[in-house]
Amino acid sequence: MKDQIIEKMYEYTKIPYQKYFKRNKPWEVDKATLLNYPEGTLGNGLGNFLSKNHFDMQPKLEDHDIIHVLTNTGISVTDEIGMQYYLLGNGKRSLYLFLVILSGTPFYPKQIKYFIEQYRRGKKAHPFYYLNFSNMLSVPVKKIQHIFNI
């Protein structure tokens, strides 16, 4: 039940967030194009992530799914909250990040150790959340993970 509440909150806030807070331009690439990138590249990894989870590209929110690929984070509600803790540890500060952490954490008090672990993982990684990932689609995922200690 609590997962459904959090997911509904995300659905209700996603469109206003895309429209009013995300200033970047949507990527001009689709899932099929991503899947044509060489295996092991960020583009192919994103295409596989989207296909595996039955997702489509979400305009202006592409970086979110890239972070899933780079950090190897799942898509459950606790994984999503944990990923925001990771990004907080990595230095990211955004309204969305704080909303997810502040609204999600109280629903999952038994997961606090996991959230703290994710925060620490983010602290150990070199800051990467701000990169222009659309220019990095042909770069191997493992290379990015190695360079940024992800």
Overall pLDDT level: 91
Rg (CA only): 15 Å
Strand fraction: under 5%
Tell me the domain tally.
Answer: 1
- The number of helical elements comes to 8
Structural class label: mainly alpha
Largest sheet: none
* Helix share bin: 55-70%
| β-strand number | 0
Task: Say what oligomer this is.
Answer: single chain
Q: Judging from the principal axes of the Cα atoms, what is the shape?
A: globular
Detail the poorly predicted runs: none
SSE arrangement, N to C: HHHHHHHH
Protein name: Coenzyme Q (Ubiquinone) biosynthesis protein Coq4
Main attributes of the structure:
single chain, 150 residues
Can you put this structure into words, describing what you see?
There is one protein chain. The protein has helices spanning 2-21, 31-35, 42-52, 62-71, 77-89, 95-104, 112-124, 141-147. The chain is mostly helical. The chain has one domain (2-10, 34-147). The longest helix has 20 residues, at 2-21. The chain is globular. The mean pLDDT is 91.
